[in-house]
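Throughout this chapter, every protein is written as a compact record of paired, labelled lines. An example of such a record is reproduced below:
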Amino acid sequence: MIGSTVSHYKILERLGGGGMGVVYKAEDSRLGRKVALKFLPDDTVADADALERFRREARAASALNHPGICTIYDVGDHDGRPFIVMELLEGETLKARIASQVMSEGEVADTALQIADALDAAHRRGVIHRDIKPANLFITREGRVKLLDFGLAKLGKKKTAEAVGISALATVGASQELLTSPGTALGTIAYMSPEQARGDEVDVRSDIFSFGVVMYEMATGQRAFPGSTPAVIFEAILNRQPPPMMGIQPNLSHELGRIVERAMQKEPGARYQSAGEMRADLDRLKRDLEAGRTAGVSSRPSPAGAPGGAATTQVVKSVAVLYFENLSGAREDEFFRDGMTEDVITELSKIRRLHVFPRATVLPFRGQAATATEVGQQLKTDYVLNGSLRRAGNRLRINAQLVDAKTDFPLWAERYDRELQDVFEVQDEIARKIAEALRLALTPQEEKALARKPTENPQAYDFFLRARGYARRMTRLDLEIALDFYEQAIELDPSFALAYAGLAAVCASFFFWHEQDEKWIHKGVEACERALELDPQSAEALAARAMLYDADRKFDQAVRYARRALAIKPDCDGAYITLGRSLFRSDQLEEAAAIADRAIEISGNDYNVHLPYTLVFERLGRREKAHELRKQQATVLQEQLRQVPEDARAWILLAGNHASLGDHEAAMRELQKATSLRPRDPIIVYNAACTYGVMNKKAEALELLKRLGDVGNFSFDWASRDPDLACLHDDPEFQRLVAEDRAKRQ
C-alpha cells in the first residue's frame, strides 16, 4: 500500500504488524500531520467477531482523552478493509527500554508515575485494560509514556462491564510473547493477575497487579514470574512470590520495594484499591528521590554484563537557574528578562539527567544579591546558573555562568552578543554548554527537543513574554494589555501555539474575575482548540482549557484537563490553582487535600495557590493544617509586598491571614491599604468581605457581598462554601442572595 491514498491519508511506509493488524505511517493531507493507520488483516475481514473487536478497540481508546494514552483520531473503511487512525509515536516500547539497560530508580519512579496516571484516567471512565505489559507501554522521544492496545479492554462500569476480545493493537514482534490462547484467560500470561489466570471476573485491581509486575521488571531487569511453559508461569503467579528486588539490585530503596510488593499481592483486597492511590505513593517516592539527588549524585551500577563489561553510572545533578539581572534598567525589559530566564529553565528541564528547580522555587531570589553558595545551602542544589541581560533595540548581550554551589567556583561562563532573532539559539546553546560542562551526553531525543522553537518570529516572542507578564497580575487593565499583546503575537505568527494558550487563559480570567459574558468562554475555547491542534501535548493549552471549564462551572472537565497538564509539565503555570479550585467548588475535598502539599511545594512563592487548599482544610475541619498553610502564605505575601508594594491582591489576602491568625488590628490595616488601591476590583471586594467574615463582622461582610453585583462577576455559590464567610451561612438575607444567584444562573 506504500504510496497509495486512503481517504485523505497518504501511506508513507509500513511500520509493522501482528496477528490482529498491520500498521502504516501516513500523512493527513487535510491537517498536514503524520499519523499511524492500523488495518485489519485481509484474512480476518470476513470474521464478524474480529471486526467487532477491531471497532470496539477504537471506541475504547477514543473514549479516553489523556496525554498518557495513545490518541485515536478517526476510523474508516477502504475497499472493505476497516482501519483506525491514531497518534504516530516515535521512540521505543518499555520492553525495548528494559532490554537495553536496567533502569535507574529515578527513571522507574518517573515512568511508573506516568503509567499510574494513565491507568487512573482509564479506570475512572470504566475501562479496565487487562493486558498491561512492557510491550503495550511506549516511551516517546520526549520521555512521555503512552499506554497502548485496548483490544483486551473491559468496557463499561464495575463488574457489569463487557469483554472486548483479544488484542487489536498487536505489537511488532508480539509472536515472541507468551500470548493468550483462544477460549482461555485473557491477557499475556507472564503479566496476568491471579484472578485473570483463573479466568475469574476482574476489576481495576487486576491492572494494578500487572502494573506491579511491570515495575518489578523495570527495576530489576528480570521477569517476576519466569518460566519455560505457560503451566509453569501460571503456577508461579498463583502460588509463588518473586525474589526480593533488593536481592537483585541492592541499591533500590525500601519504599520502591514496598510499593511493588503491595501492588503484587495475590489477594485483590490487599493491593492498592485504585491507580490513584498507587499514584500518590509513587509521587511521594519521586519527590523523595529528587530530594536525595540534590545532595549530589544518584547512581547505581548496571548489572554485570553491561556493554563493555564495566559498571556504568546514571548520574543526576541539580541546577537552580536564577533570574538574570536586567542591566538595561528599563521596566519593559523586565518581561523579557523573566521570560528568557523561565525559558532557559524549560530548556534545561528537557535533559532527563538534570534536576532543574521550577520557576516558582527560584522566584524568591529574583532581585536578591545571593551568592551561589547561599542559594545552594537554601535549595540544596549542586549548581547555580546566573547571569545578566541587556537589550538595546534588536541587540542582545547575555552573560551566563554555571557555578558550583559548594565551592562557588565557576565551571563555565560565556557572553553572547546577538540579534533578538537569535534568542532561541542562545537558550539552546546555554543548555548544551551546561550539559557539556557537567559531562552529560545528550540523547538524540534530547537533542531534538532542545532544537524545537516555540516560534520563528522574534517580535512575536517579545509580545508573548510581555503578555505573560501582564496576565499574571490579573487586574482588568493588566488582562486587557495581555490580551492585546497575545493577539499581536498571533497576528505575527498564526502557528504560535503558546500564544493561543495564553490568550485562552486570559479569557478564562476575564470571565472568572471581571465580566461574566459567554463571549470570553467562546473566545477562549476557540484559542484553546487552535493551540491543541498545533501542539496536542501543550501543557499550557491544557491548563487554559481547565481554567475555562472551571470558569464555566464544568468542574469534572476542569479537573481532568488540569491533571493532564500537570502530567506533562509538573510546574505548569496555573494548573494547580485551577485543580484545587475546581475540586473545592465540586466538594471533592479529600482529593484536594491529598495534593495540597505537592501543589504548594511545586508552586513556590505563587501566593494564589495557597487559597483553595486552605479553604479545603477549613471545610474538612482540619484547622491545624489550614492554620499552617495560612502562616506559609503570610510569609510569601510579605515577601511579595516587599518587592511589589502596589499589589492590592497581596494586601487583601494578607489581611485575611491576619484575621484568621487572630491579629484583627493588622487585618484592618492591610484591608484599608488594599481597598484604597483598588476600591472597585471584585477580587479585593470579595476578599475584604471574607476578612470581615473571619472577624465575625456580619453587617460589613454582607454589605460588601451585595456590592459585588455592581463591580464584576461573582458567584454566591462559592461564598456559600467559603468557610471564611461561615458567620453568614445561616443568615436569611445571605441565603436569599444565594438562592437568587442560583436561579439567575439556571
